[in-house]
Amino acid sequence: MRIAVVGAGFAGLSAAKVLRQSGFDVTVFEQSPDVGGVWSSTRRYPGLRTQNDKGTYHLSDLPMPAHYPQWPTGEQVQHYLERYVGLFELGGLLRLSTEVVSAELVDGESAWQLTSRPTGRDEPVTRERYDHLVVANGIFSDPLVPSFEGHAEFTAAGGRVVPASGFHDLDAARGRNVLVVGYGKSSCDVAVSVSEVAATTNVVARELLWKMPRKLGGALNYKYLMLTRMGEALFRYIEPKGVERFLHGPGNGLRRAMLDSVGSVATKQHKLAQLGLVPHGTFEDIARSTVSLSTEGFFEGVADGRITVHRDQTISALLTDNGRPAARLADGTVLPAGLVICGTGFRQQVPFFDAALHARIEDGAGNFALYRHILPLDVPHLTFAGYNSSFFSPLSAEMAAVWTAAYLRGGLTLPSKGRMHDDVRARLAWMSKRTRGKHARGTNIIPFSMHNIDELLADLGLNLGPLTRAKQWLLPVDPSAYRHVTPRMLRRTAAPASIPAPETVPR
């Protein structure tokens, strides 16, 4: 069985490793010249670091190096993935600097034809047939930059607009008036870095988010709260079980007090009231769809005047002011802005699928309709990797790869197709409601990382024992605890077989 994997980030590399160990012939396509996905040298912005500590952000069978700092840099994460490639001898599977132009079902939808070419070139074009396709292109791969009114006039005056992931050279901000759009992780990271060299640094934030201190009260590492099963249980899952029933029932007052205390600590520790940066709504309201660590130096920069935050604002137009590039905010304020850096999110899409194929993997609202965030029910010979973004994205992607391998080896018993459709519809409706639509088209499962992993492994009968999971209630989840899952799957599943034909998917 020939399998094509598109993307060489955490998801694509872990999928390639697990699938090859499962006996399949794997080829990995990556348009960048190096592995890493969001951590590639082509996408790293100044100041990029992980949100997780190094002990929780890695694949199960390769911890981060001991000499790495608590929160590794983007360059260190990319080097870690290169080490992963070397350790598991994946280099021969990789086609770097290769763009997949299109992927089409052929021969009565029994196989895929992939058309690829060298990145940035029209020729030569290569067409190849594969038995199965794994989409691991990343849900944060296509930056969304707003279409600002007046953009042409702005650029003619020397202004420049770039996404955060496209900003690599700090010297490009030196001595310039920089405007950063957004208040998420990338925006705040970039703002701190550019404030050290820019003439002015303004941040335009449509909505303020709660920023978690790395150490609550200056002492307790946040991982002991948000990177544990207890932290996850503070938010209501679609079907609360066990202790969660108590926390969202009789113990609801205690649960709310715990979450409110996090907001109180963040407010006091970051001096948000004095800075005028207390977000609207409670910590629980915003954490339903995203939790962001505070960037070291950001609030200090606001306090000392190096960074100015314009809260509850948007850019109404780009323009020139006395011949110089500038931006007008919704409240009429005009700011000098020679460089506009946008941390305004990403489009979740598969650019090498045509519109008809995209429609078959989506629901009516444009969400990815994937069973277990992996399997499209109406397109054969196709699975997704990394479309379950979470606090433990590397581990979530790796366990999804194990699920996929078991599925392709004939070792996974699925519900009927009707029941799987019902499950997908119910989950997407729940996700949309609880996040007010901020679920990245159904791909963002924050904060329910471990719930998703438990469900994947329960399908395979490979979940960890109760003692290990009990420890994870109070201690941060260590991905190394899952290092035996792949070998156990290989022992318990059948020898590699043909890919299930469409008519064999349970009805």
Strand % is 15-25%
CATH class of the largest domain: Alpha Beta
Mean pLDDT: 93
CATH architecture of the largest domain, by name, is 3-Layer(bba) Sandwich
Number of helices: 17
Which bin fits the share of residues in helices?
A: 25-40%
* Secondary structure tally: strands: 24
What is the H level of CATH, i.e. the homologous superfamily of the largest domain? FAD/NAD(P)-binding domain
Sheet with the most strands?
5 strands, parallel
> Distance between the terminal alpha carbons, to the nearest Å?
24 Å
**Could you please say which CATH topology of the largest domain applies here?**
FAD/NAD(P)-binding domain
Globular, elongated, flat, extended or rod-shaped: what is the shape?
globular
Q: How many structural domains in the coordinates?
A: 2
Radius of gyration: 23 Å
Low-confidence parts = 496-507
- Sheet/helix structural class: alpha/beta
The neighbouring-strand order within the major sheet is 3-2-1-7-24
Explain the overall architecture.
It is built from 17 helices and 24 strands. It is an alpha/beta fold. It folds into two domains: 299 residues, 3-Layer(bba) Sandwich (FAD/NAD(P)-binding domain); 204 residues, FAD/NAD(P)-binding domain, CATH 3.50.50.60. A hairpin with a 2-residue loop joins strand 17 and strand 18. The longest helix is centred in the last third of the chain and has 19 residues. The chain starts with a strand and ends in a 15-residue tail after the last helix. The C terminus is likely disordered.
